[in-house]
Amino acid sequence: MPELPEVETVRRTLTELIVGKTIQSVTVSLPRIIQRPDDIKRFEIELIGHRILEIGRRGKFLRIIMDGLVLVSHLRMEGRYGLYDKSDPVEKHTHVIFHFTDGSELRYKDVRQFGTMHLFRTGEEFTMNPLAKLGLEPLDSSFTAEAFREVISGRSTKIKPALLNQEYVVGLGNIYVDEALFRAGIHPEYPAKELSAAKLDELYEAIKSTLQEAVDAGGSSIKSFVNGQGEMGMFQHSFQIYGRKGEPCVSCGHAVEKTVVGGRGTHYCPNCQRPFTSDQSNEVKG
Ligand SMILES: [Zn+2]
């Protein structure tokens, strides 16, 4: 599943490809992709004549911002966008086509069919699902060490599921949570409420640097992620812990282990990321 860096890469690519174009018509061939409005015909008709002004992002959601309307799009497992000429043959698994007045077409393909689109009036999108309850945006200036500590400290869950919870911090998935926890030297099952302020600050820095480096590298290519121009991201070559089961830890040389935390496959170094033990709670934390 694409995480924040991959969606950010798609956002940047779509910005180059479709900003300024005007929608002439829309064709939906798989109604369940469209979550709002309920009526597919209304979705198709409402978009006619609208011009793409900007491509935004909130967490893992793209915001295709038009004059008066915003289309909120989640790629989920394998959704992807591509720009085509109207004369190009339509490939299999193409479910939504935005026909532009200049003869080009933005096509949405989704083999797994889990992707979603919600159409809103501008501004309305933040007051309703799926954006209403989203947490801190980690590459935004509003993501401060204080805000992060406030949202994570005191949680009674393990730290990994806390980081995956999009109501606390958005954009982090399985890969970048493992990378950030490794960088901060925190065991994925450590109770969130037992982390010291200093350790939370380290984790905060690790989240920011991991995501920023991945964005700079154009997102990661895991399985089928391809950005809007069909380019593969490069960050997978920089993973320090994810997918490296059995390989030596880049920091200490101990074999990387894989376990399951909160139902998710989890990579960690048992030497660099020590589990919480109850006698630690009586010591000075950190
Ligand atoms: Zn290690």
UniProtKB/TrEMBL annotation:
Q: What is its EC number?
A: 3.2.2.23, 4.2.99.18
Q: Where is the FPG-type domain?
A: 240-274
Entry-linked Pfam families: Fapy_DNA_glyco, H2TH, zf-FPG_IleRS
Catalytic activity from the UniProt record: Hydrolysis of DNA containing ring-opened 7-methylguanine residues, releasing 2,6-diamino-4-hydroxy-5-(N-methyl)formamidopyrimidine; 2'-deoxyribonucleotide-(2'-deoxyribose 5'-phosphate)-2'-deoxyribonucleotide-DNA = a 3'-end 2'-deoxyribonucleotide-(2,3-dehydro-2,3-deoxyribose 5'-phosphate)-DNA + a 5'-end 5'-phospho-2'-deoxyribonucleoside-DNA + H(+)
Which parts of the sequence bind DNA? 93, 112, 155
Q: Write down how the cofactor binds this protein.
A: Binds 1 zinc ion per subunit.
Keyword DNA damage in the entry? The reply is yes
Taxonomy, superkingdom: Bacteria
- Cofactors, names only: Zn(2+)
* Residue span(s) of domain Formamidopyrimidine-DNA glycosylase catalytic: 2-115
Q: Which UniProt keywords apply?
A: DNA damage, DNA repair, DNA-binding, Glycosidase, Hydrolase, Lyase, Metal-binding, Multifunctional enzyme, Zinc, Zinc-finger
Active site as annotated: 2-3, 60, 264
User: Which family does the entry's similarity section mention?
Assistant: Belongs to the FPG family.
Q: How does it assemble?
A: Monomer.
Q: Per its database record, what is this protein's job?
A: Involved in base excision repair of DNA damaged by oxidation or by mutagenic agents. Acts as DNA glycosylase that recognizes and removes damaged bases. Has a preference for oxidized purines, such as 7,8-dihydro-8-oxoguanine (8-oxoG). Has AP (apurinic/apyrimidinic) lyase activity and introduces nicks in the DNA strand. Cleaves the DNA backbone by beta-delta elimination to generate a single-strand break at the site of the removed base with both 3'- and 5'-phosphates.
Name used for this protein in its record? Formamidopyrimidine-DNA glycosylase
Organism of derivation:
Paenibacillus segetis
